[in-house]
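Read as amino acids, tokens; as here:

___
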Amino acid sequence: MRATRRRTCALLAASIAVAGLAAPVGISVAGRMGAGASTPAAPTPDPAGAECRTSVRGSRVVAYCHNPYPSTDRVQLHTECRRWWDIDADAAPVEVGPGRTVRIDDRCWKEVGAVWVTHRVGDPSTA
């Protein structure tokens, strides 16, 4: 009778160990399956913002920004000059209306280090 009791205890311990290892996996799978069903999908924002293309020739920078969307975009050209003594420049912000293209230019005294355009999409009266 002792052998049967040992075998029963060993089987009980083995099944507890298997259940303990399988429980986190089951909870993880259930969480993943339930997360997609109960959580609403995040709304996708409407496309907005002008597409800008920049070019550098020597010390001059030119950016063309075209806005194909119905919302107004306010763009600003930023120019970082390569020389430490050359003053970096930020052009004045320009509003690009729906279906419009604007040209923004700037320059350094010597070489241009970096150029980028920032955007602020939305109603121009709130900016």
User: Anything to note?
Assistant: The longest helix spans residues 2-38. The chain has two domains: 1-42, 51-126. The chain has one helix and seven strands. The CA atoms of residues 99 and 118 lie 19 Å apart.
